[in-house]
Amino acid sequence: MASPNPLLLLPTLADDLGRVEDQLRRSVQAEDPFLTEVASHLITAGGKRVRPAFSVTAAGTRRATMVASTPEVISGAVSVELVHLGSLYHDDVMDDATTRRTVESVNARWGNLKAILAGDYLLARASEIAASLGTEVAGLLAATIARLCEGQVLELQHTFDRTRTETAYLASIDGKTAALLATACRIGGIVADLPRPVIDQLTRFGHSYGMAFQVVDDILDVVATDEELGKPSGHDLVEGVYTLPVIRVLAHGGPDADRLGELLGSPLDEAELDEARGIVRTSGQVDAALDTARAYAAEAAATLADVADTEAGAALVAASDHLLETVQAAAAR
Ligand code: GRG
To answer: Is residue 14 included in any domain, yes or no?
Structure first.
C-alpha cells in the first residue's frame, strides 16, 4: 500500500482543498438544473485534486510554514481543476470511455453531445474565473488549453501506429498532461505574487512532475488492475494508444517485438489484449519506463532544491519522490 501524497500532510491543505471543493461546486451552478447535474457529475465523483493541491502549495513556497490561502489562490486552483475536468469530459467522448473516477462516464450516461457541451461549459467557467485573476492568468490558461489540444492531436495522429516514436510520445504528453501541471504551479506563483525566478522554477517543477505523472499513468494502464485504476485497465492498447513501455518493446526488436507487432495495429479482442499486456509486462520495458519516470521526478525535485527549506517547497519535493511509489508495487507483481 503506497503512503499518502506528502502534500496532503501539510496542515493547511485539507482546509484549502475544502474551499476549492466548495468553489468548484458553486462554479458549475447553471440556470438549467440539468446542465448543473451534468457539469457536476465528475466533481461529485471525486478525483485526487492533484492540480489544485499544486497551485495552493506552489503559492506557499516562500513562506517558512504554510498559512491559509488567499481567495485568489483558491480561485486559481479552481480554474485549473475546471480545465482538467473539461478535458476529461472531452477525452472520454473521444475514447468512448464507460467509466471515470469509478463512476459511469458522462458520455456513457448522457451521450456524447451533452458530454461535449458540458465540457465546454466547464472550460468557459474556468476562463471566467481566470479572467477575474488578471490578464496574465487568463492568457496563460487559454494558452494551456491550446497545449492540451495540441498534445491530444499528436496522440490521435498516432493511434494504431506501431511505428510511433518515443519522441512523438514525449511531445504528446508534454502537451496533454505536463502543460497543465506546469500551469497549476505557475498560477499559484503568479497569484501569490512570488518573485519571477521562483514562478519560473515552479513552472519547470510542474512540467517535469507532469511528464513523470503521465509516464506513471501509462505504466499503470499496463500493469494495474481495473479496481486499482477505477476504470478498465489496458484501455490505451484497446484504443490504439501505444505508450512508452509498448513503444520500447516494439523498438527493441526480437521475438517479443515481432509478436506484439502482429497483435497491434488494429483493435484487439480480450485474449489478444491479455497476450499483449503479458508481453509488455514481462519484457523488462516496464522497468525501463519506470526509470524514465524516475528521471523526470528527480529533475522536478532538483528544480526546487533552493526552496526545499520551506514547508511547501519540501512537500513539493517529497511529492515528486512519492510519485513513483504509486506504481512500483503494481509493477513488481
Ligand atoms: C478541451 C481542455 C480541452 C482539451 C481537449 C481531450 C483533450 C483535448 C485532452 C486530453 C487531456 C487528458 C485527458 C490528458 C490525460 C491527463 C491525465 C493524466 C488524467 C488523469 O489525471 P488524474 O490522475 O485524474 O489526476 P483525477 O481523476 O484524479 O483528477
So the answer is: yes
| pLDDT for res 1 | 52
pLDDT in tens, 59-91: 999 999 999 999 999 999 999 999 999 999 999
Q: What atom of ligand 1 comes closest to residue 120's alpha carbon?
A: 1
Whether residue 265 is contained in a domain is answered as yes
Task: Say if 239 falls within a structural domain.
Answer: yes
Residue 48 beta carbon below 6 angstroms from any ligand 1 atom: yes
Among the listed residues 69, 67, 100, the one whose alpha carbon sits nearest the alpha carbon of residue 85: 100
The number of folded domains in the chain is: 1
* Whether the Cβ atoms of residue 210 and residue 177 lie closer than 8 Å to each other: yes
Q: Range of 316's domain?
A: 6-332
Cα separation, 28 vs 43, in Å, equals 9
User: Is 204 exposed, middle or buried (CB count within 10 Å of its CB: 0-12, 13-18, 19+)?
Assistant: middle
**Distance from chain centroid for Cα 21:** 18
pLDDT in tens, 134-169: 999 999 999 999 999 999 999 999 999 999 999 999
Please report where in the chains the cell 514525449 appears, as a residue. 170
Distance CA 42, CA 46 (A): 7
| Pocket mutation for ligand 1, best pick of 90, 159, 215, 239 (most atoms within 8 Å of C-beta) | 90
236 lines ligand 1 (CB under 6 A): no
- Ligand 1 atom at minimal distance to the Cα of residue 48: 28
304 CB near ligand 1 (under 6 Å): no
On whether the pTM is more than 0.90, the answer is: yes
Residue 1 domain-assigned (yes or no): no
Looking up residue 254, the CATH number of its domain turns out to be: 1.10.600.10
- Residues 205-241 as b/e (b if ≥16 CB within 10 A, e otherwise) read bbbbbbbbbbbbbbbbbbbbeeeebbbebbbbbbbbb
